[in-house]
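Format is chain and fold; as here:
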Amino acid sequence: MALAESSVDPLRQEKAQEYGRLSRRLSLIELAIVGVLLLGILFGGASIELGKFLTASQPWAAAVYLVILAVGCGVVTTPLTNAYNRHVELRADGVALWLTDNPEAFVSVMIRLTDQNLTEAQPSRWVKLLFYDHPPYTKWVSLAYNYQKEAH
């Protein structure tokens, strides 16, 4: 049976994915780590350089410096957190496939989500690195086909 021809149980598939996310992701720990890193970078760098700006004749310079520092932290940490999230989501999808044992429904749900979210099926490497916090569609289909091969 081809993946596209099966009957779909999207609710079960989505619930299995949520279970996979919960069983594989420690959201509070992840949030705490990123928060501590950001605060450390932001205030560590700010405390060193802020004294120079506070004594400057332009008082707005400190605010501009903090904004630049915050944006810089975001530019550095966003690709890292996106890569981690893609890793966690891919593992959760593997758990969902294992729980439901229905790769056809999995692919069907992923097609629906890709269409609904208007995401690219195969984004460029840079787009994926900078903006994607979930695996692209092609990765999901590959995961389902590999699962189907291993299961049968």
